Structures are given as structure tokens and as C-alpha cells.
């Protein structure tokens, strides 16, 4: 079993729909990251979370440390949101860690 | 530079040959990370450099893989005696401090071993 599991693997939505992507992890962490990988391959960091909730534009990320679970929500989805969304965690280690452990990603397609 | 620059963008090599991949971080970024993404797989951490500290090499998959970085400048990832399973996109990222301060990815080098 991977340390970081994402669901669903693939998601197709119609423009305007509310999107939720889930991430579960099995190790203690110092932080969780959400990244976006565009069809051309470029990767952009969206959020880093250690507790609670963060919002940026139409994107909202939440984390529940006790349940080892995070969600990424997209409101009023648009075709330009089509990308692979990747969850990654910093495992908690003595002295801190800069190592990220990644999920396999969720491929989102938003149709007009 | 304005962004993280990686070269070459594509590399095709014969099995058994050595390859060098280059990463130019954003100027002033002290931290540099290498990752690998094999087809259909998630990203894998390879190695992390922070200034002049000893690098975290814990993600390197075998002793055929090595990386160097002098100070806060360019990094080179070297793969010796390449194998077909080394075919992947190799991604570099840099940060002004740690991941906490945000990080920027390069566009990657697509390595194909034939």
C-alpha cells in the first residue's frame, strides 16, 4: 500500500461543477502539499498545509490531521482547470525532512 | 534566471551509456531538489541539496545515480550505465529556503533509454 493514496484516479466534470479530490496518508507528517501538473508537464505548487484550511481563488484545501486526510476542492470548475492534481506529504522525522512522498495523482478533465 | 532551467529537455540514449542532466535553479535559491516521474507513476524524490550542507541522498535508487551541486549554483544529475527502467522525466525544483517558503519546478528532462 502506498503511503499516499489519492481518489479518484480520474475525474470528468462539466464546466461549473464543484470538484473534490481526496488524499489519504498513512504516516505522521509535518506538512501536506497539493500540486498541479499541466498537460504540458509543468508542475505548480498550489498549497502547503499543516492544519485547517487554505483558500486561493476558486481552490480550497483542507486537512484533518487526526484522520490523516486532505481534500482539494475546486468551485465553479472551468476547462482550464483540467490537469493532474498531486498530493504529497513531508513525513515527520527528527530534525525535519525536505523529502516529499507523492500520490499518483488525480487526472481532472473539465468539459465545456 | 527567472525560472528553474533544465537541460536538455529531451535525451535519448543507448542502454549502458552514461548521461548527465543539468538544473539551473532560480538565482539565490539555496535549496535544490531532484525528482523522477516514470510513465504512469507518481513522482519520486531523488536527492536534496541545501546550501553547503551534506545532501540528502536517501531517494537515489542505486549507486549508478549521483548528483553534484557546487554551492548554490547549478546541479548535475548523472546516471551511469543507463538501463531501460531509468526512462522517465527528471524534474528539478528550487526554493529560497525550505519547502515551507515555496518552491518552483523546472519543466524537466525526458530521458529515454533504448
Summarize the structure.
The complex is a heterodimer of chains A (about 110) and B (about 110). Chain A is mainly beta.
Write the layout of secondary structure elements.
The complex is a heterodimer of chains A (112) and B (114).
Chain A: E1 4-7, E2 10-14, E3 19-25, E4 29-37, E5 43-49, E6 52-56, E7 59-64, E8 69-74, E9 83-91, E10 101-102, E11 106-111
Parallel strand pairs in A: 2-11
Antiparallel strand pairs in A: 1-3, 3-8, 4-5, 4-9, 6-7, 7-8, 9-10, 9-11
Chain B: E1 5-7, E2 10-13, E3 19-24, E4 31-37, E5 43-50, E6 65-69, E7 75-79, E8 88-95, E9 104-105, E10 109-113
Parallel strand pairs in B: 2-10
Antiparallel strand pairs in B: 1-3, 3-7, 4-5, 4-8, 6-7, 8-9, 8-10
- Average pLDDT across residues of chain A? 93
Multimerization status = heterodimer
Count of individual helical segments of chain A:
0
End-to-end Cα distance of chain B, whole Å, is: 33 Å
Silhouette of chain A: globular
How far is the first residue's CA from the last residue's CA of chain A? 36 Å
> Which percent range fits the helix content of chain A?
under 10%
Strand composition percent of chain B: over 45%
Which residues of chain A sit in consecutive blocks of at least 5 with pLDDT less than 50?
none
β-sheet strand percentage of chain A:
over 45%
**Which sheet architecture does the biggest sheet of chain A show?**
6 strands, mixed
N-to-C series of helices and strands of chain A? EEEEEEEEEEE
Mean pLDDT of chain B: 93
- Low-confidence spans of chain B: none
What sort of overall outline of chain B do the alpha carbons produce when their principal axes are compared?
A: globular
Any idea what the radius of gyration of chain A is?
Answer: 14 Å
